[in-house]
Amino acid sequence: MSSNLEWSSSEKKVARSAFDKALEVAQGKTLAEFKKKASEATTFSDMREIEDHLRQLRRDLEQLFDYRYSQLIIVFASLIRKGYLDEKLLDGLSQDKRDEIGRFLAWHARQ
Amino acid sequence: MSSNLEWSSSEKKVARSAFDKALEVAQGKTLAEFKKKASEATTFSDMREIEDHLRQLRRDLEQLFDYRYSQLIIVFASLIRKGYLDEKLLDGLSQDKRDEIGRFLAWHARQ
């Protein structure tokens, strides 16, 4: 599947830039959510829940943001689905890559 | 040392109540510090530092709040030193126990 696609040098630049932008968005959203939860915490046990939740969020992000060309198609589809990536940022990618991303999104929408 | 002291039933009540009160104070201070740090966080990396710091604080508290009679003298001395326990809450303990707590505090003050 996606692991067999070739990435031109201009596509690699588009991909890197979209990836970095999505990472910034994801980290910003996570930080904002963390600050909101922390401001609402009233007990020690609330704080422990936030700590556990935060560790899980960080692990999810580390797993999600996997910049290997063999993984990028599904990574981009996931980032779009989670609201971290604006699909327009992928405009410089070849049509076959964008179609494949679209297939993942369509597949997920059916689940 | 302290592990050989006998604890009467009334002393056990005093100890339990002082211990619980100190735990409440420690958890309250930790929560307040956490909320302050979280409100000041501006980057994802600040958030990670808070998470690491929080985990360490929790471990320190778990280690500190050790309710075994063999450990209580040094635990109470540590709680007083850290500002979590008002020494007056130990008024119902025998003089030998309070002296021993005093010796730990004096020893620490000299370090």
Could you characterize what this model shows?
- Two copies of one chain form a homodimer.
- Chain A has one domain (2-110).
- Chain A contains four helices and no strands.
- The first copy, chain A, has helices at residues 9-40, 44-64, 72-81, 95-110.
- In chain A, helix 1 runs antiparallel to helix 2 (44-64) and helix 3 packs across helix 4.
- The longest helix of chain A is centred in the first third of the chain and has 32 residues, at 9-40.
- The radius of gyration of chain A is 17 Å and the shape is elongated.
- The mean pLDDT of chain A is 93.
- Chain A binds chain B through residues 27-28, 30-31, 34-35, 38-39, 41, 43-44, 46-48, 51, 54-55, 58, and chain B through 27-28, 30-31, 34-35, 38-39, 41, 43-44, 46-48, 51, 54-55, 58.
Shape of chain A: elongated
Quote the average pLDDT of chain A: 93
Q: End-to-end span of chain A in angstroms?
A: 20 Å
Largest sheet of chain A: none
Largest interface: A-B, 18 and 18 residues
User: Percent helix among the residues of chain A?
Assistant: over 70%
**What sequence of helices (H) and strands (E) makes up the elements of chain A?**
HHHH
What kind of assembly state do the chains in view correspond to? homodimer
Name the poorly predicted regions of chain A.
Answer: none
Q: What is the gyration radius of chain A calculated from CA atoms? A: 17 Å
Output the number of helix runs of chain A. 4
Return the domain count of chain A. Answer: 1
Query: Total strand count of chain A, please?
Result: 0
Q: Percent of residues of chain A in beta strands?
A: under 5%
**What structural class results from the helix and strand content of chain A?**
mainly alpha
